Amino acid sequence: MGEMIAHVGRWVLPVSSLPIEEGAVLVAGGRIKAVGPASEVLRGFKGEVRQHGTGAILPGLVNCHTHLEFSALAGRVPPQERWEDWLWLTLTATSKLTPQEKNEGIRRGLQALRDTGVALVGDISNTGESLPFLEASPLDYQLFYECLGFDLLDLSRLEEAFPFFTTSQVNENRNISAAAHAPYSVSPALFKAVKRWNKARKRPQCLHLAESAVEVKFLTRGDDFFKKLLQARGRWVPGFSPPGLSPAAYLHSLKFLGPDTLAVHGTQLQAADCALLARTGAWVILCPRANVYTGAGTPPLPELMQAGVPLALGTDSLAGNHDLNLFGEMLWLYKKYRRHYPEGRWLRLGTLQGAQALKREKDFGSLEPGKKAALGFIPLSRERRFWEELYANGAAGAWQWLN
Ligand SMILES: [Zn+2]
Asked: Whole-prediction pTM value?
């Protein structure tokens, strides 16, 4: 059971319910036991009371989209105006990394996530290299093993092309999923094999969807950029003809989308795509700072909100963002939409909704009895606007874990 500890702060943000002034969170044995006004929670309480003072107690964050394997590229790929340029630079820089550099990057990336308040991360891996690091870290994770194969036209089972999926560890570890990279790098057969594998194990899946204008062009009427890229990598399919559909409509035609699916970026989604995604229950994972960094554009937030698409947040990788601090994404959204949406909405996207997207809301995403005691504290003054200061202080690295 463990010793009972009460964390008391000027504000407690359960996320699943309204902020509490002069609140307290009771924890024991790594779980939350009670949340409420300190005057109620502490009545008759005999255990240790930790007063954290002026600031907010809040749940650990959920970053739904990183590529820890690219962390070693930090500072090596500058922001670009054209997404295509960013992709070429990233592919070139990645090919020059040594295994030691990659491993050191994964270690540093994980530490950066931890230091900025992330309790649960959805990490994309092309190789499985980040898995031992994730297993050894205090963070919880969902590892998305990313499959590419534009030319895998006849694949029926993932195991035929990806030995990673033949191990018993992968079958037994529910924190491992299969992922499809993107519509321009995955064949219809591979999309179907990824879906089948995840569905049989009830695991979430993800893909990069509608990230760039050139992706939309490639699927609707064909484009030389991806043709050349695929030819250079020996993956081009001679005679390929574009499906003539938007990325979302194309994935829907392959029956890939559903509540189990995290569609990452969505920068180029149109209103009709948003309506389609909402009908399927698919999640869109917003990485707005990363989209600006890579030259992809900005996600159509009003259309997504209007359609009722479930949303969560990610930072993407250090090849395509300034840092892995999810508060940076919240602050960006807060500043852009401060007059349009409730100011606390962005914390919800970075906590509870992320946990729901990754199907881990039983343990993460809010301060509620029974959930894991993954909580932290951000000091605040009383002078500035509450939410602005919370996001800004979080983005400046003020997070403190409460153990
Ligand atoms: Zn990504």
From this structure: 0.97
